[in-house]
Amino acid sequence: MVAASPGTATALPSPRGPVSGALITALRRAPGTVGPALSPPVEDADPWGEDAQLALYLAYELHYRGLPGVDDAWEWDPRLLSLRARLESAFLAALRDAVGDPGAVDQALADVLHPGPDSPRGPSALLADEPDLGRFREYAVHRSVFQLKEADPQALLIPRLTGRAKAAVVTVEFDEFGAGRAERVHAALFADLMRGLGLDDAYNAYLDRVPAPMLAVVNLMSLFGWHRRLRGMAAGHFAALETASPPGAARLADTLERLGVDDPACTLFFTEHVEADAVHEQLMRREVLGGLLAEEPDLADDVAFGIRAATLVEDGFAEHLGDAWGSGRSSLRGGSVL
Ligand SMILES: [Fe+2]
Ligand SMILES: [Fe+2]
Predict the structure, then answer these.
(1) Per the confidence metrics, is the pTM higher than 0.90?
(2) Mean predicted confidence (pLDDT) in 31-54
(3) Which of 74, 97, 120 finishes a domain?
């Protein structure tokens, strides 16, 4: 048995279908000892569905903190990489289909701040409409699959950039990683928030509970991050993230206060993002996108696509929350965490 990394989940999640099932079964064995069992019917799986999204999430996780009980050598196993490539190409095709023509970069960014009338109400708006501590805790559980590794996927952009774009991404990432102070690392601030809400802050502790719409949010940034050829998409996605963040963070900080949660250890994650991301947005827009497109103007379509795709998966997550909460159900797999 391989020991889990410190502070991480202690068990693999349950399978959600034949693809994630084959992958999880294989991961329990030594790399190199699995044959055709790692060729599950990816083409039959819905790329947005629970089975494909969980399998993709697990495949990427081998590159981040690893998986409990899983041999680290799986990370570069050719069979696993081949399965991941099939999952990625189905996901990217589904994204292209859903986004359509991404249009111009400026318009895509403007639409992040001013979504159209058909866009679903975002999570921060849903929580502000009807403050409820149970739902807020559910929201934190969903987000934990990204926020406890914030902003690792975005760090993958650094070696792929040069000049102004590289310098600015490093400046933003310096803040994301606490500007030299471990206790200010944004992932650590999110762990503080989780503990303050009475939740388990161990990395991937709630993976079993998090449904496909949120896994797609994380898988999108991993997909863009782990492929140099998708660097334009990764840059656009990061810009969208920083642009959308301040208004949402302000609403979430306010909602926590209305719920009577005024412990600064809980609210700091959000208040920090209101201030920091206002600066980050400008850096992303002027220096990262400006610098990248000055050097590689042919990437404009990819940048716009990255922005639109970021909004698309966030809208999918928002719709999932709205549907569940609107009909009085928990938005988590297996019911509420309360
Ligand atoms: Fe952050
Ligand atoms: Fe930021």
Answers:
(1) yes
(2) 92
(3) 97
